[in-house]
Design brief:
The complex is a heterodimer.
Chain A: E1 2-6, E2 14-15, H1 21-24, H2 29-33, E3 36-39, E4 42-45, E5 50-53, E6 59-63, E7 69-70, E8 80-84, E9 99-103, E10 118-121, E11 141-147, E12 161-166, E13 182-185, E14 201-204, E15 216-221, H3 226-233, H4 242-246, E16 249-254, E17 262-267
Parallel strand pairs in A: 1-6, 2-7, 6-8, 8-9, 9-10, 10-11, 11-12, 12-13, 13-14, 14-17
Antiparallel strand pairs in A: 1-5, 2-3, 3-4, 15-16, 16-17
Chain B: E1 3-5, E2 8-10, E3 14-28, H1 32-42, H2 49-52, E4 55-60, E5 71-78, H3 81-96, E6 103-106, E7 112-115, H4 117-120, E8 129-133, E9 136-143, E10 146-151, E11 153-169, H5 172-186, E12 192-193, E13 205-206, E14 217-218, E15 240-248, H6 251-265, E16 270-274, E17 285-288, H7 289-301
Parallel strand pairs in B: 2-16, 6-10
Antiparallel strand pairs in B: 1-2, 3-5, 3-6, 3-11, 3-17, 4-5, 7-11, 8-9, 9-10, 11-15, 11-16, 12-15, 13-14
Helix pairs in contact in B: 1-3, 5-6, 6-7
The chains are: A mainly beta, B alpha+beta.
Chain lengths: 271, 302
Protein backbone atom coordinates (compact mmCIF):
# COMPACT_ATOMS: atom_id res chain seq x y z
CA UNK A 1 0.00 0.00 0.00
CA UNK A 2 1.16 3.52 -0.76
CA UNK A 3 0.36 6.26 1.72
CA UNK A 4 0.33 9.95 0.82
CA UNK A 5 0.04 12.53 3.56
CA UNK A 6 -0.54 16.13 2.56
CA UNK A 7 2.23 18.13 4.16
CA UNK A 8 1.66 21.48 2.51
CA UNK A 9 -1.83 22.76 1.80
CA UNK A 10 -1.85 24.21 -1.72
CA UNK A 11 -2.79 27.90 -2.01
CA UNK A 12 -4.14 27.40 -5.53
CA UNK A 13 -5.58 24.27 -7.14
CA UNK A 14 -3.25 21.34 -7.47
CA UNK A 15 -4.11 19.10 -10.41
CA UNK A 16 -3.18 15.57 -9.37
CA UNK A 17 -4.37 13.16 -12.01
CA UNK A 18 -1.12 11.26 -11.55
CA UNK A 19 -2.44 10.11 -8.20
CA UNK A 20 -3.93 6.88 -9.41
CA UNK A 21 -2.91 3.22 -9.08
CA UNK A 22 -2.15 3.08 -12.80
CA UNK A 23 0.65 5.63 -12.32
CA UNK A 24 1.91 4.25 -8.99
CA UNK A 25 2.11 0.56 -9.77
CA UNK A 26 5.64 -0.80 -9.72
CA UNK A 27 7.26 2.48 -8.71
CA UNK A 28 9.37 3.15 -5.65
CA UNK A 29 8.44 5.83 -3.13
CA UNK A 30 11.02 8.20 -4.61
CA UNK A 31 9.75 7.63 -8.13
CA UNK A 32 6.22 8.33 -6.95
CA UNK A 33 7.42 11.50 -5.21
CA UNK A 34 8.90 12.62 -8.52
CA UNK A 35 5.65 12.29 -10.47
CA UNK A 36 4.64 15.67 -11.90
CA UNK A 37 1.56 17.49 -10.66
CA UNK A 38 0.26 20.79 -11.96
CA UNK A 39 0.30 23.51 -9.34
CA UNK A 40 -1.43 26.54 -10.73
CA UNK A 41 0.33 26.81 -14.08
CA UNK A 42 3.59 25.10 -13.21
CA UNK A 43 4.63 21.46 -12.90
CA UNK A 44 5.80 20.40 -9.45
CA UNK A 45 6.88 17.00 -8.12
CA UNK A 46 4.30 15.18 -6.05
CA UNK A 47 6.75 15.01 -3.18
CA UNK A 48 6.59 18.77 -2.78
CA UNK A 49 3.09 18.49 -1.37
CA UNK A 50 2.90 14.94 -0.10
CA UNK A 51 5.04 12.74 2.03
CA UNK A 52 5.15 9.34 0.38
CA UNK A 53 5.55 6.02 2.12
CA UNK A 54 5.36 2.50 0.77
CA UNK A 55 6.06 1.22 -2.68
CA UNK A 56 3.75 1.66 -5.63
CA UNK A 57 0.87 -0.73 -5.25
CA UNK A 58 -2.73 -0.95 -6.36
CA UNK A 59 -3.93 0.56 -3.10
CA UNK A 60 -3.32 4.20 -2.22
CA UNK A 61 -4.27 5.94 0.98
CA UNK A 62 -4.32 9.74 1.05
CA UNK A 63 -4.73 11.85 4.17
CA UNK A 64 -5.18 15.56 4.66
CA UNK A 65 -7.38 18.44 3.61
CA UNK A 66 -7.41 17.94 -0.12
CA UNK A 67 -10.09 20.48 -1.02
CA UNK A 68 -7.77 22.15 -3.51
CA UNK A 69 -6.46 18.90 -4.95
CA UNK A 70 -8.26 18.02 -8.17
CA UNK A 71 -8.48 15.08 -10.56
CA UNK A 72 -7.39 12.41 -8.09
CA UNK A 73 -8.06 9.01 -9.65
CA UNK A 74 -9.05 10.53 -12.96
CA UNK A 75 -9.17 7.90 -15.74
CA UNK A 76 -7.93 5.21 -13.35
CA UNK A 77 -8.59 1.64 -14.47
CA UNK A 78 -7.71 -0.46 -11.44
CA UNK A 79 -6.84 -0.56 -7.78
CA UNK A 80 -8.18 1.34 -4.85
CA UNK A 81 -7.81 4.86 -3.48
CA UNK A 82 -8.86 5.63 0.08
CA UNK A 83 -9.07 9.30 1.00
CA UNK A 84 -9.38 10.50 4.57
CA UNK A 85 -10.40 14.12 4.40
CA UNK A 86 -12.23 16.43 2.02
CA UNK A 87 -11.17 16.30 -1.60
CA UNK A 88 -11.44 18.66 -4.56
CA UNK A 89 -13.11 18.62 -7.95
CA UNK A 90 -13.08 15.95 -10.67
CA UNK A 91 -12.40 13.04 -8.33
CA UNK A 92 -12.45 9.83 -10.40
CA UNK A 93 -13.44 11.75 -13.49
CA UNK A 94 -13.50 9.40 -16.48
CA UNK A 95 -12.40 6.46 -14.35
CA UNK A 96 -12.85 3.05 -15.95
CA UNK A 97 -12.26 0.66 -13.11
CA UNK A 98 -11.13 0.27 -9.54
CA UNK A 99 -12.55 1.89 -6.46
CA UNK A 100 -12.34 5.21 -4.70
CA UNK A 101 -13.51 5.54 -1.10
CA UNK A 102 -13.71 8.99 0.47
CA UNK A 103 -14.21 9.65 4.15
CA UNK A 104 -15.08 13.30 3.78
CA UNK A 105 -16.75 15.69 1.36
CA UNK A 106 -16.07 15.83 -2.36
CA UNK A 107 -16.05 18.79 -4.77
CA UNK A 108 -17.89 19.16 -8.06
CA UNK A 109 -17.77 16.74 -11.01
CA UNK A 110 -16.87 13.66 -9.01
CA UNK A 111 -17.17 10.63 -11.30
CA UNK A 112 -18.04 12.85 -14.25
CA UNK A 113 -18.11 10.78 -17.43
CA UNK A 114 -16.82 7.74 -15.60
CA UNK A 115 -17.05 4.47 -17.52
CA UNK A 116 -16.66 1.90 -14.77
CA UNK A 117 -15.58 1.28 -11.21
CA UNK A 118 -16.94 2.40 -7.89
CA UNK A 119 -16.86 5.69 -6.01
CA UNK A 120 -18.03 5.64 -2.41
CA UNK A 121 -18.35 8.99 -0.69
CA UNK A 122 -18.99 8.98 3.03
CA UNK A 123 -19.90 12.64 3.08
CA UNK A 124 -21.41 15.15 0.67
CA UNK A 125 -20.76 15.54 -3.05
CA UNK A 126 -20.84 18.71 -5.14
CA UNK A 127 -22.50 19.53 -8.43
CA UNK A 128 -22.26 17.48 -11.61
CA UNK A 129 -21.80 14.16 -9.79
CA UNK A 130 -21.49 11.48 -12.49
CA UNK A 131 -22.56 14.06 -15.02
CA UNK A 132 -21.36 15.24 -18.41
CA UNK A 133 -18.96 18.11 -18.88
CA UNK A 134 -20.31 21.09 -20.75
CA UNK A 135 -20.59 20.22 -24.41
CA UNK A 136 -20.15 16.48 -23.89
CA UNK A 137 -22.85 14.24 -25.32
CA UNK A 138 -22.94 11.89 -22.34
CA UNK A 139 -22.03 11.66 -18.71
CA UNK A 140 -21.41 8.59 -16.62
CA UNK A 141 -21.39 5.42 -18.73
CA UNK A 142 -21.24 2.41 -16.37
CA UNK A 143 -20.06 2.16 -12.80
CA UNK A 144 -21.50 2.93 -9.41
CA UNK A 145 -21.40 6.07 -7.28
CA UNK A 146 -22.69 5.96 -3.72
CA UNK A 147 -22.93 9.11 -1.60
CA UNK A 148 -24.13 8.77 1.96
CA UNK A 149 -24.65 12.53 2.36
CA UNK A 150 -26.14 15.11 0.00
CA UNK A 151 -25.28 15.96 -3.59
CA UNK A 152 -25.54 19.17 -5.59
CA UNK A 153 -27.21 20.09 -8.84
CA UNK A 154 -27.14 18.19 -12.14
CA UNK A 155 -26.43 14.82 -10.61
CA UNK A 156 -26.14 12.26 -13.42
CA UNK A 157 -26.77 14.80 -16.11
CA UNK A 158 -26.77 13.09 -19.51
CA UNK A 159 -25.72 9.82 -17.91
CA UNK A 160 -25.77 6.85 -20.23
CA UNK A 161 -25.44 3.84 -17.91
CA UNK A 162 -24.65 3.00 -14.33
CA UNK A 163 -26.05 3.76 -10.93
CA UNK A 164 -25.84 6.83 -8.72
CA UNK A 165 -27.25 6.52 -5.21
CA UNK A 166 -27.44 9.46 -2.84
CA UNK A 167 -28.43 8.86 0.76
CA UNK A 168 -29.36 12.49 1.41
CA UNK A 169 -30.76 15.26 -0.73
CA UNK A 170 -30.09 16.05 -4.36
CA UNK A 171 -30.17 19.54 -5.84
CA UNK A 172 -31.89 20.67 -9.01
CA UNK A 173 -31.86 19.09 -12.46
CA UNK A 174 -30.94 15.60 -11.33
CA UNK A 175 -30.77 13.34 -14.37
CA UNK A 176 -31.23 16.22 -16.78
CA UNK A 177 -30.91 14.97 -20.35
CA UNK A 178 -30.35 11.50 -19.00
CA UNK A 179 -29.96 8.85 -21.72
CA UNK A 180 -30.23 5.80 -19.45
CA UNK A 181 -29.10 4.52 -16.06
CA UNK A 182 -30.46 4.87 -12.57
CA UNK A 183 -30.37 7.61 -9.95
CA UNK A 184 -31.55 6.73 -6.45
CA UNK A 185 -32.18 9.48 -3.94
CA UNK A 186 -33.20 8.77 -0.37
CA UNK A 187 -33.58 12.38 0.74
CA UNK A 188 -35.36 15.22 -1.00
CA UNK A 189 -35.25 15.19 -4.79
CA UNK A 190 -34.71 18.73 -6.06
CA UNK A 191 -36.77 20.53 -8.67
CA UNK A 192 -36.78 19.82 -12.39
CA UNK A 193 -35.49 16.28 -12.05
CA UNK A 194 -35.22 14.45 -15.34
CA UNK A 195 -35.58 17.54 -17.50
CA UNK A 196 -35.08 16.43 -21.09
CA UNK A 197 -34.45 12.79 -20.15
CA UNK A 198 -34.87 10.17 -22.89
CA UNK A 199 -34.66 6.88 -20.99
CA UNK A 200 -33.44 6.06 -17.52
CA UNK A 201 -34.90 5.94 -14.05
CA UNK A 202 -34.86 8.42 -11.22
CA UNK A 203 -36.02 6.72 -8.07
CA UNK A 204 -37.11 9.01 -5.26
CA UNK A 205 -37.45 7.31 -1.91
CA UNK A 206 -38.00 10.53 -0.01
CA UNK A 207 -39.72 13.82 -0.64
CA UNK A 208 -40.00 15.21 -4.16
CA UNK A 209 -39.80 18.97 -4.62
CA UNK A 210 -41.78 19.16 -7.82
CA UNK A 211 -41.96 17.36 -11.11
CA UNK A 212 -41.97 19.07 -14.45
CA UNK A 213 -45.34 19.27 -16.17
CA UNK A 214 -43.87 17.20 -18.98
CA UNK A 215 -43.93 14.14 -16.71
CA UNK A 216 -47.22 12.26 -16.77
CA UNK A 217 -48.55 9.97 -14.06
CA UNK A 218 -48.74 6.30 -15.12
CA UNK A 219 -49.65 4.11 -12.18
CA UNK A 220 -48.88 2.95 -8.66
CA UNK A 221 -47.10 -0.40 -8.75
CA UNK A 222 -44.32 -2.56 -7.39
CA UNK A 223 -41.36 -2.45 -9.78
CA UNK A 224 -39.51 -5.75 -9.46
CA UNK A 225 -36.43 -4.43 -11.25
CA UNK A 226 -35.67 -2.15 -8.29
CA UNK A 227 -35.21 -5.04 -5.93
CA UNK A 228 -31.81 -6.27 -7.14
CA UNK A 229 -30.51 -2.69 -7.14
CA UNK A 230 -31.81 -1.92 -3.67
CA UNK A 231 -30.45 -5.17 -2.28
CA UNK A 232 -27.07 -4.34 -3.73
CA UNK A 233 -27.17 -0.75 -2.44
CA UNK A 234 -28.11 -1.92 1.05
CA UNK A 235 -24.52 -3.16 1.34
CA UNK A 236 -23.28 0.43 1.16
CA UNK A 237 -24.95 1.69 4.30
CA UNK A 238 -27.79 3.53 2.59
CA UNK A 239 -31.06 3.84 4.54
CA UNK A 240 -32.86 1.00 2.77
CA UNK A 241 -35.65 -0.82 4.55
CA UNK A 242 -37.65 -3.87 3.48
CA UNK A 243 -40.61 -1.70 2.58
CA UNK A 244 -38.54 -0.05 -0.14
CA UNK A 245 -38.17 -3.44 -1.81
CA UNK A 246 -41.72 -4.63 -1.51
CA UNK A 247 -43.51 -1.28 -1.49
CA UNK A 248 -45.48 0.61 -4.09
CA UNK A 249 -44.11 3.38 -6.29
CA UNK A 250 -45.88 6.03 -8.31
CA UNK A 251 -44.57 6.04 -11.84
CA UNK A 252 -44.30 9.28 -13.80
CA UNK A 253 -43.13 8.86 -17.37
CA UNK A 254 -41.25 11.51 -19.23
CA UNK A 255 -39.74 13.78 -20.19
CA UNK A 256 -42.47 14.10 -22.82
CA UNK A 257 -40.69 17.17 -24.11
CA UNK A 258 -38.00 14.71 -25.15
CA UNK A 259 -38.35 11.01 -26.06
CA UNK A 260 -40.51 10.34 -23.02
CA UNK A 261 -39.28 6.82 -22.28
CA UNK A 262 -37.72 7.74 -18.97
CA UNK A 263 -39.38 7.67 -15.60
CA UNK A 264 -39.43 9.11 -12.13
CA UNK A 265 -40.49 6.49 -9.60
CA UNK A 266 -41.67 8.00 -6.35
CA UNK A 267 -41.86 5.71 -3.34
CA UNK A 268 -45.35 5.93 -1.93
CA UNK A 269 -44.96 6.77 1.74
CA UNK A 270 -48.60 5.74 2.35
CA UNK A 271 -47.98 2.02 1.95
CA UNK B 1 -19.22 -60.02 -7.91
CA UNK B 2 -22.69 -59.79 -6.40
CA UNK B 3 -23.53 -56.60 -4.58
CA UNK B 4 -26.40 -56.28 -2.13
CA UNK B 5 -27.71 -53.28 -0.22
CA UNK B 6 -30.15 -54.11 2.57
CA UNK B 7 -30.83 -57.41 0.89
CA UNK B 8 -31.52 -55.87 -2.52
CA UNK B 9 -29.41 -57.12 -5.38
CA UNK B 10 -27.63 -54.43 -7.40
CA UNK B 11 -27.19 -55.83 -10.87
CA UNK B 12 -23.74 -55.51 -12.43
CA UNK B 13 -24.88 -53.39 -15.33
CA UNK B 14 -24.81 -49.77 -16.43
CA UNK B 15 -27.06 -46.89 -17.31
CA UNK B 16 -26.45 -45.47 -20.75
CA UNK B 17 -26.62 -41.69 -20.73
CA UNK B 18 -26.35 -39.10 -23.46
CA UNK B 19 -24.70 -35.77 -24.15
CA UNK B 20 -27.14 -32.91 -23.77
CA UNK B 21 -27.05 -29.15 -23.42
CA UNK B 22 -28.52 -27.76 -20.24
CA UNK B 23 -29.45 -24.48 -18.65
CA UNK B 24 -30.77 -23.27 -15.32
CA UNK B 25 -33.58 -20.74 -14.99
CA UNK B 26 -34.53 -19.06 -11.73
CA UNK B 27 -38.15 -17.98 -11.63
CA UNK B 28 -39.20 -15.61 -8.87
CA UNK B 29 -42.63 -14.30 -8.02
CA UNK B 30 -44.65 -12.35 -5.50
CA UNK B 31 -45.01 -15.50 -3.43
CA UNK B 32 -44.06 -19.16 -3.53
CA UNK B 33 -47.36 -20.20 -5.05
CA UNK B 34 -46.92 -18.18 -8.23
CA UNK B 35 -43.26 -19.11 -8.60
CA UNK B 36 -44.31 -22.76 -8.38
CA UNK B 37 -47.14 -22.26 -10.85
CA UNK B 38 -44.80 -20.78 -13.45
CA UNK B 39 -42.20 -23.48 -12.86
CA UNK B 40 -44.77 -26.25 -13.13
CA UNK B 41 -46.04 -24.88 -16.43
CA UNK B 42 -42.55 -24.34 -17.76
CA UNK B 43 -41.53 -27.90 -16.99
CA UNK B 44 -44.80 -29.42 -18.13
CA UNK B 45 -44.76 -31.83 -21.07
CA UNK B 46 -40.99 -32.05 -20.95
CA UNK B 47 -40.36 -35.66 -20.06
CA UNK B 48 -38.40 -36.87 -23.06
CA UNK B 49 -36.70 -35.20 -26.01
CA UNK B 50 -38.23 -37.88 -28.24
CA UNK B 51 -41.74 -36.53 -27.90
CA UNK B 52 -41.38 -33.20 -26.11
CA UNK B 53 -38.30 -31.72 -27.82
CA UNK B 54 -36.76 -31.05 -24.41
CA UNK B 55 -36.51 -32.44 -20.92
CA UNK B 56 -37.05 -30.24 -17.92
CA UNK B 57 -37.79 -30.33 -14.26
CA UNK B 58 -37.80 -28.37 -11.04
CA UNK B 59 -34.39 -28.46 -9.38
CA UNK B 60 -35.44 -26.83 -6.12
CA UNK B 61 -36.11 -23.58 -4.35
CA UNK B 62 -32.96 -21.50 -4.03
CA UNK B 63 -32.41 -19.87 -0.66
CA UNK B 64 -31.25 -16.70 -2.38
CA UNK B 65 -32.69 -15.13 -5.52
CA UNK B 66 -31.57 -12.01 -7.40
CA UNK B 67 -34.63 -10.02 -6.37
CA UNK B 68 -35.00 -11.57 -2.93
CA UNK B 69 -38.44 -12.99 -3.65
CA UNK B 70 -39.45 -16.63 -3.40
CA UNK B 71 -38.07 -18.54 -6.34
CA UNK B 72 -37.88 -21.86 -8.09
CA UNK B 73 -34.92 -23.19 -10.00
CA UNK B 74 -35.65 -25.06 -13.23
CA UNK B 75 -33.28 -27.10 -15.40
CA UNK B 76 -33.94 -27.61 -19.08
CA UNK B 77 -32.08 -29.92 -21.45
CA UNK B 78 -32.00 -30.52 -25.20
CA UNK B 79 -29.75 -32.54 -27.49
CA UNK B 80 -28.31 -29.46 -29.23
CA UNK B 81 -27.39 -25.85 -28.52
CA UNK B 82 -29.79 -24.51 -31.11
CA UNK B 83 -32.68 -26.46 -29.71
CA UNK B 84 -31.99 -25.19 -26.23
CA UNK B 85 -32.39 -21.58 -27.33
CA UNK B 86 -35.63 -22.33 -29.14
CA UNK B 87 -37.17 -24.34 -26.34
CA UNK B 88 -36.15 -21.87 -23.68
CA UNK B 89 -37.60 -18.98 -25.60
CA UNK B 90 -40.87 -20.82 -26.21
CA UNK B 91 -41.27 -21.94 -22.67
CA UNK B 92 -40.31 -18.72 -20.92
CA UNK B 93 -42.42 -16.77 -23.38
CA UNK B 94 -45.49 -18.92 -22.97
CA UNK B 95 -45.34 -19.94 -19.34
CA UNK B 96 -43.28 -17.47 -17.31
CA UNK B 97 -44.03 -14.22 -19.07
CA UNK B 98 -47.71 -15.07 -18.88
CA UNK B 99 -47.73 -15.94 -15.18
CA UNK B 100 -48.65 -13.13 -12.76
CA UNK B 101 -45.84 -11.40 -10.85
CA UNK B 102 -42.97 -13.52 -12.15
CA UNK B 103 -39.46 -12.50 -13.08
CA UNK B 104 -36.96 -14.76 -14.81
CA UNK B 105 -33.22 -14.88 -14.14
CA UNK B 106 -30.28 -16.79 -15.50
CA UNK B 107 -29.11 -19.35 -12.97
CA UNK B 108 -26.04 -20.66 -14.75
CA UNK B 109 -22.77 -18.79 -15.23
CA UNK B 110 -21.28 -20.27 -18.38
CA UNK B 111 -19.34 -19.00 -21.40
CA UNK B 112 -21.97 -20.30 -23.83
CA UNK B 113 -25.08 -18.17 -23.71
CA UNK B 114 -28.54 -18.05 -25.23
CA UNK B 115 -30.42 -14.85 -25.94
CA UNK B 116 -33.78 -14.98 -24.24
CA UNK B 117 -34.76 -11.56 -22.93
CA UNK B 118 -33.20 -10.09 -26.05
CA UNK B 119 -35.80 -11.96 -28.11
CA UNK B 120 -38.73 -11.70 -25.73
CA UNK B 121 -38.32 -7.94 -25.40
CA UNK B 122 -40.09 -7.42 -28.71
CA UNK B 123 -43.31 -8.35 -26.97
CA UNK B 124 -42.96 -4.91 -25.40
CA UNK B 125 -43.66 -3.39 -28.81
CA UNK B 126 -41.11 -0.65 -28.39
CA UNK B 127 -41.98 0.13 -24.76
CA UNK B 128 -39.49 -2.38 -23.37
CA UNK B 129 -36.63 -0.94 -21.34
CA UNK B 130 -33.20 -2.39 -20.74
CA UNK B 131 -31.44 -2.26 -17.37
CA UNK B 132 -27.91 -3.25 -16.47
CA UNK B 133 -27.13 -4.70 -13.07
CA UNK B 134 -23.68 -6.01 -12.14
CA UNK B 135 -22.78 -6.42 -15.78
CA UNK B 136 -25.97 -8.35 -16.52
CA UNK B 137 -28.63 -6.95 -18.81
CA UNK B 138 -32.31 -7.25 -18.02
CA UNK B 139 -35.41 -6.32 -19.93
CA UNK B 140 -38.47 -4.73 -18.42
CA UNK B 141 -41.41 -5.67 -20.61
CA UNK B 142 -44.67 -3.88 -19.86
CA UNK B 143 -47.58 -6.26 -19.24
CA UNK B 144 -51.12 -5.70 -18.03
CA UNK B 145 -50.22 -6.52 -14.44
CA UNK B 146 -47.12 -4.30 -14.36
CA UNK B 147 -43.80 -5.42 -15.76
CA UNK B 148 -42.10 -8.68 -16.63
CA UNK B 149 -38.42 -8.66 -15.79
CA UNK B 150 -36.30 -11.11 -17.75
CA UNK B 151 -32.59 -11.52 -18.10
CA UNK B 152 -31.06 -10.87 -21.50
CA UNK B 153 -28.95 -14.02 -21.73
CA UNK B 154 -28.93 -17.40 -20.07
CA UNK B 155 -25.90 -19.62 -19.66
CA UNK B 156 -25.80 -23.13 -21.07
CA UNK B 157 -23.33 -25.95 -20.75
CA UNK B 158 -22.72 -29.49 -21.92
CA UNK B 159 -24.78 -31.76 -19.74
CA UNK B 160 -25.86 -35.34 -19.31
CA UNK B 161 -29.30 -36.76 -20.00
CA UNK B 162 -30.76 -40.18 -19.49
CA UNK B 163 -29.02 -41.36 -16.36
CA UNK B 164 -31.35 -44.00 -14.96
CA UNK B 165 -31.98 -47.00 -12.82
CA UNK B 166 -34.74 -49.57 -12.60
CA UNK B 167 -36.44 -50.68 -9.42
CA UNK B 168 -37.64 -54.27 -9.64
CA UNK B 169 -40.15 -55.04 -6.91
CA UNK B 170 -42.46 -57.75 -5.72
CA UNK B 171 -45.57 -55.59 -5.83
CA UNK B 172 -46.82 -52.24 -7.07
CA UNK B 173 -47.04 -50.93 -3.51
CA UNK B 174 -43.47 -51.88 -2.61
CA UNK B 175 -42.02 -50.61 -5.88
CA UNK B 176 -43.91 -47.35 -5.77
CA UNK B 177 -42.87 -46.78 -2.17
CA UNK B 178 -39.23 -47.42 -3.06
CA UNK B 179 -39.43 -45.10 -6.06
CA UNK B 180 -40.95 -42.35 -3.94
CA UNK B 181 -38.19 -42.70 -1.33
CA UNK B 182 -35.58 -42.55 -4.10
CA UNK B 183 -37.10 -39.45 -5.66
CA UNK B 184 -37.28 -37.78 -2.27
CA UNK B 185 -33.57 -38.39 -1.72
CA UNK B 186 -32.54 -37.43 -5.25
CA UNK B 187 -34.40 -34.14 -5.17
CA UNK B 188 -31.89 -32.93 -2.61
CA UNK B 189 -29.01 -33.31 -5.08
CA UNK B 190 -28.23 -29.99 -6.80
CA UNK B 191 -27.77 -29.86 -10.56
CA UNK B 192 -30.18 -32.64 -11.49
CA UNK B 193 -33.83 -33.04 -12.35
CA UNK B 194 -36.08 -36.05 -12.76
CA UNK B 195 -38.15 -35.10 -15.80
CA UNK B 196 -40.91 -37.72 -15.58
CA UNK B 197 -44.13 -37.41 -13.58
CA UNK B 198 -43.24 -37.38 -9.90
CA UNK B 199 -39.72 -38.28 -11.04
CA UNK B 200 -40.81 -41.81 -12.00
CA UNK B 201 -41.48 -43.51 -15.33
CA UNK B 202 -43.31 -46.79 -15.79
CA UNK B 203 -42.99 -47.05 -19.57
CA UNK B 204 -39.33 -47.69 -20.19
CA UNK B 205 -38.61 -48.18 -23.86
CA UNK B 206 -36.32 -50.02 -26.21
CA UNK B 207 -35.02 -48.13 -29.28
CA UNK B 208 -36.89 -50.16 -31.91
CA UNK B 209 -40.29 -51.62 -32.71
CA UNK B 210 -41.91 -53.99 -35.12
CA UNK B 211 -43.63 -50.98 -36.72
CA UNK B 212 -41.58 -49.05 -39.25
CA UNK B 213 -43.08 -45.71 -38.26
CA UNK B 214 -42.20 -46.14 -34.57
CA UNK B 215 -38.57 -45.65 -33.44
CA UNK B 216 -39.13 -46.80 -29.85
CA UNK B 217 -41.51 -49.17 -28.16
CA UNK B 218 -42.20 -50.77 -24.81
CA UNK B 219 -39.29 -52.41 -23.03
CA UNK B 220 -40.87 -55.87 -23.24
CA UNK B 221 -38.06 -57.61 -21.39
CA UNK B 222 -39.06 -55.67 -18.27
CA UNK B 223 -42.84 -55.92 -18.67
CA UNK B 224 -44.09 -58.41 -16.05
CA UNK B 225 -47.20 -59.22 -18.06
CA UNK B 226 -45.03 -60.48 -20.91
CA UNK B 227 -43.07 -62.94 -18.82
CA UNK B 228 -43.46 -66.26 -20.56
CA UNK B 229 -44.01 -64.61 -23.94
CA UNK B 230 -40.73 -62.74 -24.43
CA UNK B 231 -37.17 -63.22 -23.18
CA UNK B 232 -37.86 -61.63 -19.82
CA UNK B 233 -35.15 -59.87 -17.82
CA UNK B 234 -37.21 -60.14 -14.65
CA UNK B 235 -36.18 -62.50 -11.88
CA UNK B 236 -38.67 -64.74 -10.17
CA UNK B 237 -40.99 -62.89 -7.82
CA UNK B 238 -40.78 -59.52 -9.59
CA UNK B 239 -44.18 -58.18 -10.55
CA UNK B 240 -43.56 -54.46 -11.03
CA UNK B 241 -40.75 -52.29 -12.44
CA UNK B 242 -40.36 -48.55 -12.20
CA UNK B 243 -37.60 -46.44 -13.67
CA UNK B 244 -36.09 -43.18 -12.52
CA UNK B 245 -34.50 -41.04 -15.21
CA UNK B 246 -32.02 -38.34 -14.31
CA UNK B 247 -30.80 -35.34 -16.30
CA UNK B 248 -27.97 -33.31 -14.84
CA UNK B 249 -25.73 -30.37 -15.56
CA UNK B 250 -22.70 -32.58 -14.94
CA UNK B 251 -21.92 -36.29 -15.00
CA UNK B 252 -20.87 -36.05 -11.36
CA UNK B 253 -24.28 -34.68 -10.39
CA UNK B 254 -26.06 -37.50 -12.26
CA UNK B 255 -23.86 -40.09 -10.59
CA UNK B 256 -24.46 -38.57 -7.19
CA UNK B 257 -28.21 -38.62 -7.78
CA UNK B 258 -28.06 -42.25 -8.86
CA UNK B 259 -25.98 -43.08 -5.81
CA UNK B 260 -28.40 -41.59 -3.29
CA UNK B 261 -31.42 -42.76 -5.27
CA UNK B 262 -30.36 -46.40 -5.47
CA UNK B 263 -29.54 -46.47 -1.79
CA UNK B 264 -32.90 -44.96 -0.91
CA UNK B 265 -34.71 -47.39 -3.22
CA UNK B 266 -33.37 -50.44 -1.41
CA UNK B 267 -36.54 -50.99 0.58
CA UNK B 268 -38.38 -54.11 1.71
CA UNK B 269 -40.13 -55.80 -1.19
CA UNK B 270 -37.51 -54.77 -3.73
CA UNK B 271 -35.67 -57.68 -5.35
CA UNK B 272 -33.22 -55.98 -7.66
CA UNK B 273 -31.92 -52.61 -8.93
CA UNK B 274 -30.97 -52.60 -12.58
CA UNK B 275 -30.42 -49.95 -15.26
CA UNK B 276 -31.46 -49.23 -18.82
CA UNK B 277 -28.92 -49.38 -21.61
CA UNK B 278 -28.61 -50.16 -25.28
CA UNK B 279 -25.51 -52.27 -25.01
CA UNK B 280 -23.37 -49.16 -24.78
CA UNK B 281 -23.75 -48.42 -28.48
CA UNK B 282 -25.89 -45.26 -28.36
CA UNK B 283 -25.00 -43.16 -25.34
CA UNK B 284 -21.74 -41.37 -24.66
CA UNK B 285 -21.75 -42.16 -20.93
CA UNK B 286 -21.92 -45.60 -19.35
CA UNK B 287 -22.63 -45.26 -15.64
CA UNK B 288 -21.91 -48.57 -13.96
CA UNK B 289 -24.04 -49.15 -10.90
CA UNK B 290 -21.35 -50.99 -8.94
CA UNK B 291 -18.80 -48.24 -9.62
CA UNK B 292 -21.21 -45.52 -8.60
CA UNK B 293 -21.99 -47.30 -5.36
CA UNK B 294 -18.32 -48.10 -4.77
CA UNK B 295 -17.66 -44.34 -4.81
CA UNK B 296 -20.35 -44.04 -2.20
CA UNK B 297 -18.64 -46.64 -0.02
CA UNK B 298 -15.33 -44.83 -0.39
CA UNK B 299 -16.98 -41.60 0.71
CA UNK B 300 -18.41 -43.32 3.75
CA UNK B 301 -15.02 -44.78 4.62
CA UNK B 302 -13.43 -41.33 4.37
Amino acid sequence: MTTLILKTEPAVPLEAEKIAPDHFLGKTASEIAALPLLYGNEAVPLGEFFSVSGNGSAEITIEGDLKRVKWIGARMTQGRIIIRGDVGMHLGSGMRGGEIVVHGNVGDWAGAEMAGGLIQIHGNAGHGLGGAYRGSPRGMNRGLIVVTGNAGNEVGAAMRRGVIAVGGEIGEFAGAFMIAGNIFVFGRLGARAGAGMKWGSIIALGEVAELLPTFRYSCRYQPVFLRPYLRMLANFGLPIVDAHLSGHYRRYCGDLASLGKGEVLVYDQRQ
Amino acid sequence: MALYIDGVEIEDTFAEAFKMWGTRVVITAHNRYWAQQAALKMTGFATSVIGCKCEAGIEGEPAETPDGRPGVSVLLFTPSKDDLGKRLLERIGQTVLTCPTTACFNGLEAPDQISVGRQLRYFGDGYQVSKMWRGRRFWRIPVMEGEFLVEDKFGMQRSVGGGNFLILGESLEATLHAAERAVEAMQRVPGVVLPFPGGVVRSGSKPRSRYRFLPASTNDAYCPTLRGVVASALPEGVNCVLEIVIDGLTLAAVEEAMRVGIRAACQPGIRRISAGNYGGSLGQFNIHLHQVLAESNKDEQR
